[in-house]
Each structure stands twice: as structure tokens, then as C-alpha cells.
Amino acid sequence: MRARFLAHSYPRFPTDPVGSFVLRLAVALKGQGVKVDVVSPAAQGVAAQETFEGVPVRRYRYAPRAWETVAYSGTMSAQARASWRARAAVAGLLAANTLAAWRAGPAPDVVHAHWWFPGGMAGGWLASIWRRPLVITLHGSDVRTFEGFPFGRRIFRYVLRRANRVTTVSTWLADAVRAVVPEVDPLVIPMPVAPGLFHPADERPAETRVLFVGKLNAQKGIEPFLRAFARLRAPATADIVAGVGSDDAPWRAMAAELGIAARLRWHPLLEQAALARVLREATVLAMPAVHEGLGLVALEAQLSGTPVVAFSSGGLKDIVAHGETGYLVPPGDADALAAALDRVLGLPDRGRELGEAGRRRALERFAPESVARRYADVYAQVCGGAAHP
Question: Angle, nearest 10°, between helix axes 20-29 and 368-382?
Fold first, then answer.
């Protein structure tokens, strides 16, 4: 079976963390007899065609080079709201995506669009022309993209109704889809993890380190994290790994005002191996995100044997088992976040048992082979074949 992935976020180089879960799924599907090729936007300094881990990717230009800023940035919606140039680039992204997928080779057996826009919209047109089934996977951020745009909700409904199957990476996300498009019943299938790359350290680090990983914005919770860290009773340092498109200047100023600047280490977006090392070295991961589609970093922390303290919101409720692999606290509550972090840091084993339980849970539910088998079953079903028993 052949599947064509349409993804506007995909690794630009082998160790790129951006969209790495899409590559992991493509690689894992090879073990299920599914051959995947990928169509993705161009980026500065990236080849038009190349192959990562046996998966070919074809990249397309979608605007003049100076305008090609909406893909890979994680800020497509914000840019489109702010400028007409970005809106033109988004329109170009949709048109170029469709054309590139058409030119990528013979029609596949199934079109698999990651995110409903632009992939889902382009995939719907192509699937109709090719008379092939369409699978759309929603990852979280894309459910918010239609808000604030004229006819956005109506277009969202139109795109999802054209899919033969819609999947989401978390239960929360599936519920959000049903609220907008009641006639669509998403199947919850998470993205696969990388247990070989993310693994526990041989010995727990002696230093007490709290870790924050994510874009420095309200949705990821950088402000409540800084406020919670300032209220910790336990002596600790913190590492802050900024996500793509982040501006750390206002948050460094806030840290100085809170009197914690000397205890913070700031990191830019890290490649996968470097992020895995930081996760292994952390005592606990703080993830105060709201409306998170899944929370892949929390999963990677669990694979690394690191307990997670998170807001009880979005897909994080699917990942963190309260009291077993970490703790969930009310969204937006910096005091509760600080108390839960102190609780982990105050344990005799500093959360080692929680981290071990987290790794076991992550391997049981998010192993690449398991996720790939479920997607292979979806492909078989929409193509009219029989699923795996």
C-alpha cells in the first residue's frame, strides 16, 4: 500500500524536532507494509527532494523567498491575521501544496493529510480527482486556526466532512471536533514516540533541575511557570528550552523582576538528541500548557524517566496519570503548580518511581509499532480491505 503524507510541518534535516512525529509515523508504517512519501513546504537551505530514514520528501516553493515565513514557524494563524502579505503566502501554500502533491508521482492508495489546513483542504481536492480515500489527522493547533477568520468554522466543517476518516491525537481534541462537527466521529490515535532516542539516564543527576520546554507564549504557560518557579520552596535551577518562533526578551525581564534570573538557563530550539539529553538530566518537567493537542514533550519526558507536572488540560490528561506518573493541577494556578513541583522535588527518590512508571505507560500506549498498526488498519478500512485482527 502507498500513502502520501501532506504536512506543512516536517523535519527540515534529520535531527530537526519540527514535525518529527510525522517522520516517525512514516518510518514505523514501513513495518506494516505501507510505503509513504511526503509533500512539505520549502525552507531556506533545504533541498527540494531528499530522503530521511527511507522516506522520500518533496518540498515546494509557495511564495517569494522573503515571504516564505508561514510554514515551520508555528505562527501561521497569527501572521495571517496581522498582514496581507502573510495571507498571500498562506494562499500560495495551499495552491502549491495541491500542485506539488499532484506532481509527486502516481496517485497513492490513500491520501493522509496532517492538519486540516492546508493539507486537509488540498488532500480533499486531490482525493476527489484521484478517487482515493482521504485520512485527516488533527494535531491540536489546527483546531484553533479557524477561529477569528471569516467563514473559518464553515470551511473547517467542509474539509472534515470530505474525509473518509478523521483521527485526533488526544481524547480532548476528539471532543473539540465533535463540538464543531457533530457528524464527524474522530478516532483517537496518538503520534508515535521515539523510545530509542528518549531513554532514562544511567544515574539520576545530583543537581535538582526543573525543565520547561515549549514556545514562550500564553498557551504553553511560560508566565505561570516563571511565577511558580519563583514560589518554590525547594532549592532548584531551571532550564527553559524555547520553541520555534519564540521571543525570550519579555520573559527574561519578568524573571529578573521575580528575582529568579540567576537560577535560569535559557536554551534555543534544540535538535532531538540535545533535547533528549536535557530531558534525561531534568528532575521534573513542568508543562503548564492549556488546550494542548497532545503534549509530545510530556511523553518524551516520560520515556526519559522524568516525572511530569502539568495543567489538567487538553491532551495532557491522556498522558499524565495523576499520582502515578506525575501530577495534574488546575489550569492557570501557579500556586498549585509550585506545590506539585515541590511535592515531586521533596520525595525521597526525587520522583524516580514516578518517572519509571511514566516510561512504562508511554511504551505501552505510544510505541511506534502499536501506533503504526492502528494507522495501517485505518488505511485498510478506508480502502475497503480488512483490518488487522
Answer: 70
With a cut of 70, say whether residue 193 has pLDDT above it. yes
- Can you give the pLDDT at residue 150? 64
Strand partners, 137: 114, 167
Show the domains of the chain with their CATH numbers: 2-191+367-382 (3.40.50.2000), 209-365 (3.40.50.2000)
Checking if the pLDDT of 389 tops 60, the result is no
3-state helix, strand, coil in the chain (%, to 5): 45, 15, 40
Given the C-alpha cell 518537567, which residue does it identify?
Answer: 285
Quote the CA–CA distance of 25 and 176 in Å, as a whole number.
24
In what helix (H) or strand (E) does residue 89 lie, and over which residues does it extend? helix 84-103
DSSP codes of every residue in 354-375: HHHHHHHHHHHHH-HHHHHHHH
Give the global pTM: 0.85
| Pick from 89-98, 145-154, 265-274, 278-287: least confident | 145-154
What is the structure's pLDDT at 17?
87
Mean pLDDT (the chain) is 92
Contact 21, 192 (CB under 8 A): yes
Whole-number Å distance between alpha carbons of 81 and 338: 35
User: 18 near 10, Cβ under 8 Å?
Assistant: yes
